[in-house]
Amino acid sequence: MRMLSALALAASLAVAPAFASAAQASDNVSNGGVPVAMPSASAKQRFIDDLIARMTLEEKIGQLRLISIGADMPQPKLIKEIAAGRVGGTFNSVTRSENRPLQDAAVKQSRLKIPIFFAYDIVHGHRTVFPISLGLASSWDMTVVKQAARVAAQEASADGLDATFAPMVDISRDPRWGRTSEGFGEDPYLVSQSARASVQGFQGTSPANPDSLMAFVKHFALYGAVEGGRDYNVVDMSPMRMYQDYLPPYRAGIDAGAGGVMIALNSVNGTPATSNKWLLRDLLRDEWGFKGVTVSDHGAIEELMRHGVAKDGREAAKLAIEAGVDMSMADQQYLKQLPDLVKSGDVPIRFIDDAVREVLGAKYDMGLFADPYRRIGNAPQDPKDVYADDRLHRDAARDIARKSIVLLENQHDALPLKKAGKVAVIGPLADSKLDMMGSWSAAGKPAQAVSLLQGVRDTLGDKGQVTYARGANITDDPRVVEYLNFLDWDNPEVVQDKRTPQQMIDEAVQVARNADTLIVAVGESRGMSHEASSRTSLMLPGSQLALLQALKATGKPLVVVLMNGRPLDLNWSKVNADAMLETWYAGTEGGHAIADVLFGDYNPSGKLPISFPRSIGQIPTYYNQLRIGRPFTPGKPANYTSQYFEEDSGPLYAFGYGLSYTTFDVSKVKLSAKTMTIGATVEASVTVRNTGKREGETVVQLYLQDVAASIVRPIKELKGFQKVSLKPGESRTVQFAIDERSLKFYNAKLQYVAEPGDFNVQIGLDSQNVQQATFTLK
Ligand code: NOJ
């Protein structure tokens, strides 16, 4: 309704505002999350066409600018730029009171009164921080992924934000890459499912809803395949691998309705994504039918010069706009170059108009023309304290974090621990609230996070005794410390204990000797698994390994709690720990969630969304590698097979692996038919039984192998999964419908086909231990 009145008004005025009026709109804001009915596509088109017809070239170019608040421009200058119609949107603000004056400048001062939008990197939570995406994916529970995004959207929209630069759906098969932590792992199917769930969570039923955020799927495309895991590096990849493995997650996010796409910083087969017409027009728009807005990554248009595909800013801006980069993020080139490029005729105005149309379309879809203040609200209703604890969703955070934890080892049922006796909590990450938040922790406040030490104390209460020692610094390497603290020396990410390593270890050993059980939190500081944090080693830093070794020597039961954002080399811990939990960075309620698992209030059910290599030399270790002529077969001689002779083949912990406090048994696979015709389905089923003494959940995983095809196909591919909960002794039949789509792949001509022949159906509780049956596609 409000949109229609805006249209009527726009039609009746010479220089019409692009929405009703700020005052009127902000009076109308409080519709409490009720979905807003949007006018039809043609009404949207008419509205935008009318607006574009009234815009000057400068105003159009202004809409293409996405400004980083603070980093690019101080607020007073920003307000002037917005009032002059030279800004389309901003990012990096997190409160309504920060955003209100900026929106006022847009809708009360600029000539056409076009609202701006407010974006932020809300990747795994806004004020309440959930586990990092790798952790969310470890739940193998899409309701969990969706819920984390939904809560984040509710919190962020209540802080005046309209959009998030998430989900990050880059497949990562190289743990050296620090941004592995931001994604959902190595597998096309699991990451695609996560992409869909995440977009649905952020956007709700519509990105126009006052409690929704528009999702910008990123980084398009293939960013996770950077060479050597070196951030920002090149990607050189066969079209088949691209289509089969790396592109599906972006497509899934887009098909789920994501309104935006962020373009990757890397090049793809010789052309930077930012100047890649094939990627941004032919594939994204023509082939996939994407109708939303594209934004460059930070400074990426400028970087076209450093990639060596543009000799100057003028060429860079021309390449980007022609390739299909609608908005430039934190980059001056559109502002500086586009006016003359258009005036000289070097860039046809239609490129600018098309980009502006997408930007305005996104704002329209966010509901901002109907009401620019729909998420900013009125000042009197602003939260008195944005950090108030009752604004957090602690129950959801604890529940989601428990589900993201993976039990890697549990020798002689070392876990769960009894709630009694003397427990020593040790390690550089044991009492770190900051690291618990993980990278990209949005507006999360570390002081509101629960550390592991706190979680153990709260859980044990007066039933036992908890002692603590830090035991080691994250690392003693000054070069690494300097790198990690580079951004902000006033608030260092890594604070070094001034004692010598030996003094710290001595104290920890002393504490350990007086305890019954040791819970030792080791891993990476959050900055070690972040943008620009590529590593040449997956080992625990030496300081931490030395601590573990000293603690092991005490002979006390050793429970290793890992906090990290990538697969690590866990050889030592696998052999020496009595139990080992992968907790990633578990978020605001991390300490409670980990304690719930340690003391058995929650039976772990997480599974690895990425393979853990035995050593860094073994990378890549992803499970769905292409088949080869001389594969290594366990138990057979290794000579003249594809393997490394100094160590065992295969990952240390496989994709899909994770233990429980109970045990499960999987029956042989039953198929509803031995043959399948195109258009039909085959039902594959197994019976899963809880053979242990506790109720528990596990993830039943379906893999398919194409026995012989026109091109080389993977060893196996995940095609379905179901999480089941079983009481002791209980069994359940789990069924998967295999249809033609599950058998399809991109052939040498990039046609998406299912080829007749045999298919092995493998079902199990991880990617390696499976039951198998075979059917034939006729
Ligand atoms: C650069 C990062 O690559 C991207 O993921 C992020 O969204 C932007 N900076 C904005 O913060």
Indicate the topology.
Layout: H1 2-12, H2 22-27, H3 41-53, H4 57-63, E1 65-68, H5 75-83, E2 89-91, H6 96-109, E3 117-120, H7 133-138, H8 142-157, E4 163-164, H9 188-203, E5 214-220, H10 239-246, H11 248-255, E6 260-263, E7 267-268, E8 271-272, H12 277-287, E9 293-295, H13 300-307, H14 313-323, E10 328-329, H15 333-343, H16 349-365, H17 394-403, E11 406-410, E12 421-426, H18 433-436, H19 452-460, E13 464-469, H20 478-484, H21 501-513, E14 517-523, H22 542-552, E15 558-563, H23 571-576, E16 579-582, H24 590-598, E17 664-666, E18 670-671, E19 675-676, E20 682-690, E21 696-706, E22 717-726, E23 731-738, H25 740-743, E24 745-746, E25 752-753, E26 757-764, E27 770-777
Parallel strand pairs: 1-2, 1-10, 2-3, 3-4, 4-5, 5-6, 6-9, 12-13, 12-14, 14-15, 15-16, 19-27
Antiparallel strand pairs: 7-8, 11-16, 17-20, 18-20, 20-23, 21-22, 21-26, 24-25, 26-27
Task: Give a description of the structure.
The chain has 778 residues and is of the alpha/beta class. The protein has three domains: 57-369, Glycoside hydrolase, family 3, N-terminal domain (TIM Barrel, Alpha-Beta Barrel); 406-605, Glycoside hydrolase family 3 C-terminal domain (Rossmann fold); 664-777, Immunoglobulins (Immunoglobulin-like), CATH 2.60.40. Helices cover 31% and strands 17% of the residues. It has 25 helices and 27 strands. The strands form six sheets. The chain has an eight-stranded parallel β-sheet. Strands 11-16-15-14-12-13 form a six-stranded mixed β-sheet, with helices on both faces. Helix 9 links the parallel strand 4 (163-164) and strand 5 (214-220). Helix 5 (75-83) packs parallel to helix 6 (96-109), helix 8 packs parallel to helix 9 and helix 17 (394-403) packs across helix 24. The longest helix has 17 residues, at 349-365. It starts with a helix and ends with a strand. Residues 1-16 and 20-35 have low confidence and may be disordered. 1-deoxynojirimycin (NOJ) is lined by residues 121, 165, 218, 297-298, 531.
